[in-house]
Amino acid sequence: MSTQMRAAREGRETEEMRIVAESEGESPQTIRKRVAEGSVIITRNIRRENTHPIGIGKGLRIKVNANIGTSPDICDLNMEIEKAKIAIKYGADTVMDLSTGGNLDEIRRAILRAVNVPVGTVPIYQTAIEAAKKKGSIVHMTEDDIFNTIEKHAKDGVDFMTVHCGIRKETVRRIAKQPRLMGIVSRGGTFLTAWMLHNDEENPLYKNYDYLLEIAAKYDFALSLGDGLRPGCIFDSTDYFQIQELLTIGELVERARNAGVQAMVEGPGHLPLNHIEANVKLAKSICKEAPFYVLGPIVTEIAPGYDHIVGAIGGALAALAGADFLCYLTPAEHLGLPSLEEVKEGVIATKIAAHAADIVRLGSKAMTKDLKMAKARANLNWKQQIENAIDPDKAIKIRGRTKLKSPEACSMCSEYCAIKMLKEALNLHCL
Q: How far apart, in Å, are the Cα atoms of 22 and each of 6, 12, 134, 359?
């Protein structure tokens, strides 16, 4: 069976392309063309039958990802499945299983069964954790261990995988001599860096990239080329290490396309507001319009407990500049594993950021609910306002907590509601 990209280049429209076209309001021909050139990817592993494929990239609605997963301190599979379901309920287009505690195979397979959206993983987590348990240290994992884990995830039906292929041995040596303020904050990037320093070898994912492409083509999962050297604070933003890795990733995108493999590019990270547009445009240029996937960006360091808001600010700017896929942050970012409520808050904040950018990028096609909401507010139609809210339950809760003197209005303005007063004034004038 050929990959989505190969089918597109052969002029064939797959069922997945037709599904994406319908959901995006585009023609199947347009989707096929963009998949063929690599500016759009469709996330769906051929081994997974219950996935609803989504398109990510040029001209499409900005997508939102929610990270879930266990940790060594908190390992509750049922809780993580519930987080996945809540994330999807409130608008997440994909989920990623980043589990590091418990039976990782069991957890991943259970999540894959429980949801019908595309699921992503970071296979190097499992490889490194198992090496630490079985061999005493992550630096003792082998190249075979790494690729066997990737293929195991592929066989299970994982739809896209983060692979940190762009970290090079020469860059790692330099970062050891010229440290950054926050060093390396990517967990996968750190695992591979430690391995390279200890073994004095090139990154196996870079050295054996052609083999990785063979596996990806076999199962048609998408590569998410991870930013292992992303800045971990705004003071490391747009530095040599980040850009050097991006240049390598640009080469890897071309190699993936030549092999008929779909690839997107992961981006920073922590960036001040005035760096965001330049970072997105640089990545789009170097990687020749490959879909761009960002975490945040996080635009200030001082907001633990509110990093979902920080990330939404950065995400809206990144999406406006051309980012295609936003990874959520929750209020628990930098503090701990998120609760169910924090997952909901993170998804909603990121969904708002994505939608705000879609209004500009897609125009009227993205504004259906906004227009309905505006008309409902103009008519003081509270039922329709609730129906068009991103979180109707919260809207109902806030509106219902006060006994209103003027039921047409809200408790902020009450009888002095501007809309209500104007309607009354106009009615009297018309008489």
A: 21, 17, 48, 19
Question: Quick one: average pLDDT of 236-264?
Answer: 97
> For the whole model, what pTM was predicted?
0.95
Q: Cα-Cα-Cα-Cα dihedral of 150, 153, 159, 164, to 10°? A: -30
Phi, then psi, of 224 in degrees rounded to 5: -110, 100
Helix (H, G, I), strand (E, B) or coil at 65: strand
Query: What is the C-alpha to C-alpha distance for residues 43 and 147, in angstroms, rounded to an integer?
Result: 20
Name every residue whose Cβ is closer than 8 Å to that of residue 139 and which is 6 or more positions away in sequence: 131, 194, 195, 198, 199
Q: Is the peptide bond before 118 cis (omega within 30 degrees of 0)?
A: no
Structure-token match 């083999």, residue found: 211
Q: Calculate helix-pair angle for 77-89, 340-362, nearest 10 degrees.
A: 30
In the block, which residue shows the tokens 């219950």?
50
| CA atoms of 303 and 320, how far apart (whole Å) | 23
Tell me, rounded to whole angstroms, the distance of Cα 348 from its chain centroid.
13
The CB density around residue 363, as the number of other CB atoms within 10 Å, is 9
Does the pLDDT at position 428 exceed 80? no
pLDDT higher than 50, residue 1: no
C-alpha 52/C-alpha 67 separation (Å) is: 18
Structure tokens at 86: 């809540």
Of residues 4 and 179, more confidence is placed in 4
Name residues whose C-beta falls within 8 Å of residue 314's C-beta, 6 or more positions apart in sequence: 271, 273, 276, 294, 296, 297, 298, 299
Q: Which residues pair with 57 in a beta bridge?
A: 40
Q: What is the pLDDT of residue 430?
A: 66
113-122, 137-146, 271-280, 395-404: range with lowest mean pLDDT: 395-404
Report how far residue 150's alpha carbon sits from residue 158's, in angstroms, rounded to the nearest whole number: 10
Cα 27 from Cα 33, distance rounded (Å): 10
pLDDT computed for residue 421 by the predictor = 81
Q: Which residue has the tokens 């990733």?
A: 249
- The two tokens of residue 179 are 């440290």
Angle between helices 123-135 and 143-156 in degrees, nearest 10 = 130
Give the residue-averaged pLDDT of 33-57. Answer: 94
**To which H or E segment does residue 327 belong?**
strand 325-327
